[in-house]
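Format notes (please read before filing issues)

Several people have asked whether sequences and structure tokens are stored in separate files. They are not. Every record keeps both together, in the order shown below: the sequence lines, then the token lines. Line labels are part of the format and must not be stripped during preprocessing.
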Amino acid sequence: MTIAAGVVQRFLWFSAERGLRLGIAFVVGAAVARHLGPQSYGMIAYGAATVAVFSVVFGLGMDAVVVRDLSRDEGNDLAMVGTVVVMRALSGLLAAVCCVLYAFLVNLNSEGLRQLLLWQSLVLLFGWGDIVDAWFQARPQLWRGICLRISVCLVAAGIRVFMIFSDAGAYAFVLASVVESALIATGLWILFRRSLRGKASLTFEMGMARDVLKRGWPLALSAGLVTFVLQGDRIILGHLASAEQVGIYAASARFLDVLLILPMLMGMAVQRLFAQEATRNVDARTVPVRKILTAAHWLALVAALLTWLASQWIMPKVFGASFREGGAILAIQSWVVVFVMQVALRTRVLVAEGSHRLVLLLSLVTAVVQAGLLPFAIGRAGAIGAAYATLAAWVCGAWIAPLLFRQTRWFVVAFFRGMVFPFRS
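Then the structure lines:
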């Protein structure tokens, strides 16, 4: 199978699953936002953004390391998975403890916000399921994990719809998210164990654990910084603005989340193939890879343009009149996907080449720019200022930060070359 055919096949598999799950989550999420209103929805959004940062940082970069290693050497999968699942379970417990400490140490706007964050931190205990999921992603046959995640998503959606009709409060919806995470992790583990028929048991190897930590920590910090760039606007808004503004901003960001499924799916589709291409060649920057980058960038550009055109009327149509202000925010957020796509695929190439520290440095520049801009922008323009600051940070991460390093200038050139000459090899 050619690289292009492999990417298309995996992209379609992941698209079918993530598209269905995201579609269900979007529809149900809009109904939850209408039910709770901007203020309560904003509190949940703040908690979810905070938990996401802790989850990624304490993931220690294990997911990417597992997929990369299993794609290259499938004979060592039991030792790898056994070792990393134990590590991820321990790091998840530590993440939950740190999130609880954060909830008590940081000056939050209300006691209710703190209580919601405490409940949401329970999600971190099930992060080890991501490692089992990574094992399924590294296999040519993806359907078992995909079917499991879709089934749990449907059940969770049904529970939330029932809760809406039962006039449930914000705490109930937070607990529903915790239950969903637990079901996915447990289900993936059961499927994984059944797939090991006739094989030896899982093992834990201390040497492998040290190696994973050594290679994964730059990716963990990088992913944490990227997650902060994606979620930091909501977190800092939660401290500097009202919960109602956070709710309106988070509602518009639901459309951005739909757009960001494109970079995520492309990244998941190409990570195995980029790793194999880097093994066969000096690096992963071959002509087929360049063609994939060009196609992905054009896909993101078209998606951004369509969202921008629809932004003003789609917010009140979906979320209701109380979220009308989100249209102006979405008009800015829609362009973020163009730059996230470039950063996501650049990261996959660098990981395939083993340039983990470059990934970290580029993410650090992006996060520093956003952290510096957000307080000023929010103080001047509130939620709209947060959207502009986040967009500026991603522009910096995609077009400016790579110029600082000789090894990454190629990606900026490849982007503009693909935009101007998309059909040239």
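For reference, the curators noted about this record: The chain has a mean pLDDT of 82. The longest helix spans residues 3-57.
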